Amino acid sequence: MLLSRIVIYPIKSLDGVVVPEVRLTAGGILEFDRVYAFVDDKGAYVNGKRTGRIHALRSEFGPGFAEVTLWENDASQREQFCLREPEKLNAWLSDFFGFGVKLVHEPKSGYPDDRTAFGPTIVSEASLATVADWFPEMDVESSRRRFRSNLEIAHTPPFWEDHLFGAPGELKPFRVGEAQFLGHNPCQRCVVPTRDPDKSTQIPGFQKVFMEMRRRNLPPWSNAERFNHYYRFAINTSVPETEAGKVLRLGDNIIT
Predict the structure, then answer these.
(1) pLDDT above 90 for 74
(2) Which residue in 91, 92, 188, 232 has the most C-beta neighbors within 10 A?
(3) Does 15 fall in a domain?
(4) Other Cβ atoms closer than 10 A to 105
């Protein structure tokens, strides 16, 4: 089992960036992953769970993730912003969404959805391909963009990553290269995977179909006690403080 893909999402809910290697921070995240987020005037996230409008935004990042270029799907006009001086970006975002939005920054621990299992999510290539086969509207790249996992594993059967969590209350240790991880649980999914990542259109009955197919395809090594429902996919992790500064690289072995 090898680490075959590393994706970071510098701004929560926007496009990912594929990288050949990445350092773990003292906060237990991948460096630059979800270290920026959009919030409203009350501090609540403006993300894909809240509004499908965000799927219309495309993004590219400059060197060191200090700048971002944003544009709306199929639009020819692009706008470049300095992330360290976000006033111009805040005004543009507020206009785009139609209410007050601003950029916030947390470089050490980022803005994970799960404050307990705050580490990178991990999934196998075979699992992404299998899920794509369940829906005629999807291919592997669409599956990847819908579920937005950080780390992908090659040379495994589908749902091999279910090896990486144990019984309720158990944190299961495993290694990626030299770095130690703790596997928590299969990740509970939200509305985002139901939507086309560009158009925001939903696949009718996506959640129902997914849950039934996940149940039917649950491998014998997966602990069924961890599924209070079957809308769960990819593995939530955490990273011990001792691993800060270690680097993950493509081709690293996955050791359980």
Answers:
(1) no
(2) 232
(3) no
(4) 13
